[in-house]
Write a structure and sequence with these properties.
CATH superfamily: Immunoglobulins
Number of domains: 1
Helix content: under 10%
CATH topology: Immunoglobulin-like
Order of helices and strands: EEEEEEEEEEEE
Distance between the termini: 29 Å
Largest sheet: 9 strands, antiparallel
Mean pLDDT: 79
Oligomer: single chain
Length: 159
């Protein structure tokens, strides 16, 4: 584990799969506003997932994010926001280009066009949402007619 003071993030490499076997996981914790409001859960695609970034989720403010989709010029993408999946669901071809991990049980799915893929979704101004956790993950459509997943983000809704 290492702290990157220039980017205000903590990186952790390693993990376990429940059978005492190590797994090649990389975790990145972002520390905006001195809280763990947004952090990378794990990679989405075994053969190199795409990083995804988003704003700190706050009640009454739009949650915005983006990621690169070099697969297609038009850049068809799906963004999912939903309940955290633990453990992640595994998928493979033909839907995915190669094995991958879905980290969000979709409650909201957005279709996004463009490169980079950018999106905004309003967060309701309900105080009861403060502290609630959801996961965010996206998929970009590749030339090979399959999807590639981004990393999964865990979000804690802030006031």
């Amino acid at each position: 584990m290492v702290y990157d003071s220039g980017r205000d993030r903590i990186f952790l490499q390693g993990g376990a799969d429940g059978t005492n076997n190590g797994t090649p996981q990389n975790w990145e914790y972002r520390i905006p506003d001195s809280s763990l409001a947004v952090f990378v859960v794990d990679v989405g695609h075994c053969l190199g997932s795409r990083p995804i970034v988003c704003s700190v989720p706050r009640i009454g403010v739009s949650l915005c994010g983006s990621y690169q989709n070099p697969g297609l010029p038009a850049g068809f993408n799906l963004v999912t926001i939903g309940l955290p999946l633990s453990p992640a669901m595994t998928f493979g071809p033909p839907a995915l280009c190669a094995g991958g991990f879905l980290h969000a049980l979709p409650q909201l799915v957005l279709e996004v066009l463009g490169e980079p893929a950018s999106f905004c979704v309003p967060v309701p101004g309900e105080p009861a949402l403060v502290g609630q956790r959801v996961n965010l993950q996206a998929a970009s459509f590749e030339v090979a007619s399959c999807f590639r997943l981004t990393d999964g983000l865990a979000l804690a809704i802030q006031p």
